[in-house]
Write a sequence for this structure.
């Protein structure tokens, strides 16, 4: 295991346990078994480490989004989006304990926003990717012309986010599984007979 991988593993553990707001580079370095200086050889700051954890240590939402894009016109729209929904729920569920504390600290949000912008990352990317996928399927005639890609993407990922949020507080989450979330949004915009 490389030094960078050990740092990301330790950071993921610390951020899950303490949240981003209370995770320190000192504690991450200690848990990884390195000095803080070693962290800074691989990452610019805590926000850069957090982005690394999001991309490399959480369930792979980005891979599911790329799969959907590769499958435009293949399989069914429902199958493609069910995979995205499953990945999104897993990703959001894993990220809530880490990122939740950041929302209470405007300075942390501002610094993370700057890091995201620098790396072309951020929570808006999945919504844009799903909207692009839906638009491509609509353009192929696999969804009705009046289907609104941005609304479908926002509602679909918003439902995933809400489900992950509720998982933090209740044992039994109300609402359907991935297939019923997708069906509820897609049925009205599928062409007749599909």
């Amino acid at each position: 295991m490389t030094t960078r991988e050990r740092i990301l593993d330790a950071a993921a553990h610390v951020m899950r346990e303490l949240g981003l707001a209370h995770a320190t580079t000192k504690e991450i370095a200690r848990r990884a078994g390195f000095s803080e200086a070693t962290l800074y050889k691989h990452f610019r700051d805590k926000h850069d480490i957090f982005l690394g954890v999001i991309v490399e240590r959480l369930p792979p939402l980005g891979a599911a989004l790329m799969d959907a894009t590769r499958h435009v016109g293949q399989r069914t729209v429902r199958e493609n989006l069910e995979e995205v929904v499953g990945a999104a729920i897993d990703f959001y569920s894993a990220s809530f304990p880490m990122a939740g504390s950041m929302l209470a600290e405007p300075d942390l949000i501002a610094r993370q926003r700057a890091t995201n912008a620098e790396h072309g990352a951020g929570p808006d990317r999945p919504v844009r990717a799903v909207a692009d996928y839906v638009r491509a399927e609509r353009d192929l005639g696999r969804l009705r012309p009046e289907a609104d890609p941005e609304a479908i993407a926002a509602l679909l990922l918003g439902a995933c986010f809400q489900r992950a949020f509720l998982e933090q507080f209740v044992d039994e989450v109300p609402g359907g599984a991935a297939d019923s979330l997708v069906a509820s949004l897609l049925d009205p915009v599928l062409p007749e007979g599909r």
Observations:
- Residues 77-99 form the longest helix (23 residues).
- Residues 59-194 form a domain with the Tetracycline Repressor; domain 2 fold (CATH 1.10.357.10).
- The chain has ten helices and no strands.
